[in-house]
Design a protein that fits this description.
184 residues, mainly alpha
Length: 184
């Protein structure tokens, strides 16, 4: 396969990736091929060393349809029964064991965000209090600094935990899809 054929096929397989990122990937592979040619390899050897474009697209996480012809209509419908059974089983399991804790954790995150927001806006109330009551300025400064800092750190921690939780939910979703499709 020539360099241009390789790059064209890879470009076609990476069509799901945003154009800017796709151009960066293609230019990287073109640079690898050019570097190998400069080091004495032929164009075909340089392309062969990179592997097939389908393998590369698969490694980048892009869905690549297989070239296997689908079976007859009877074969295709014969595999639906176990998939439906797996789907219903996973649905029941998720409703009984997973939905409650996920909703509870999501509620806890809402509470954590509300607490962080409350810590962030508390200094505003204390500043208003400075003008309506006599409060020592140094005490007010440190109180405002402490509550705002705590609120900001609390917000950062909550964001970190929420991102981790969403990644866990995404992983669990992919696991469910894999089980229903018969991957496990």
């Amino acid at each position: 396969m020539t360099k241009q054929q390789f790059l064209n096929e890879l470009n076609h397989l990476l069509v799901q990736i945003p154009e800017g990122e796709r151009k960066d990937i293609l230019s990287d592979y073109e640079a690898h091929i050019d570097s190998a040619i400069e080091n004495g390899k032929t164009e075909e050897e340089a392309v062969a060393d990179l592997g097939s474009p389908k393998t590369i697209a698969d490694e980048l996480g892009v869905f690549v349809p297989t070239d296997k012809p689908s079976g007859t209509k009877k074969e295709a419908t014969a595999n639906v029964g176990p998939n439906i059974f797996a789907f219903l089983g996973m649905l029941l399991f998720n409703l009984i064991f997973i939905l409650g804790p996920v909703v509870g954790i999501a509620g806890a995150f809402i509470g954590l965000y509300a607490a962080a927001f409350a810590c962030l806006i508390t200094p505003v109330g204390f500043i208003i209090n400075l003008f309506t009551h006599e409060t020592p300025m140094l005490l007010a400064f440190f109180f405002i600094l402490a509550t705002f800092s705590f609120g900001y750190l609390f917000l950062l921690l909550t964001n970190f935990l929420a991102k981790w939780f969403l990644k866990l939910i995404h992983w669990y979703w992919k696991l469910n899809v894999k089980i229903v499709k018969g991957g496990y």
